[in-house]
Predict the 3D structure of the following.
Amino acid sequence: MKSENKLAGLGLLTAISASLCCITPVLALLVGTSGLASTFSWLDPLRPYLIILTVLVLGFAWYQKQKPQKQIDCNCETTEKTPFIQTKMFLGIVTVFAGLMLAFPIYANVFFPKTENKTIITDQANIRTVEFLINGMTCTGCEEHVNLEVNKLTGIVNTTVSYENGNAIIEFDQAQTDIEEIENAIEKTGYSVTNKKENK
């Protein structure tokens, strides 16, 4: 029984580790510490292995739980209740929670508020579009985090952030903000701008 509990705990730990790089931006948003967002981005290349390990560990825990227990032949009555932590229900809860953690990158963006651009453009000649190459983004949560910080600035017209392309294409009014301010907003999230180029 104790080995099943250890397996359930290990399965939960690997599931959380697999999604830690995407959970951190949401936690950073909730506690208001934007710079923490990219702390666990180094785990992203390990994610497939952690997912496989989670599935194997929890699968083995379920196998252990389902296999018939050896019956001890004795005439004594056993009225001892099984602790909750050793029940199938507990293992089921751990499995569901692990599944939610593994799927977290898919729905991480729902935790971020929707941003609206309220910039009033007075002169179309002031509009610039710059592409910022960003290191450290690993999921849609990262995209939303960068998007949120950039849209706090005045003068932002449009933002397109992609973790897959590792970039953010920002359209802005240079009379209200500049490239340096935008770069600072991106780096405030904990991700680093590696290059920038203006799109004509």
User: Anything to note?
Assistant: The domain at 112-199 is CATH 3.30.70.100 (Alpha-Beta Plaits). The longest strand covers residues 127-135. The first helix runs from residue 2 to 31.
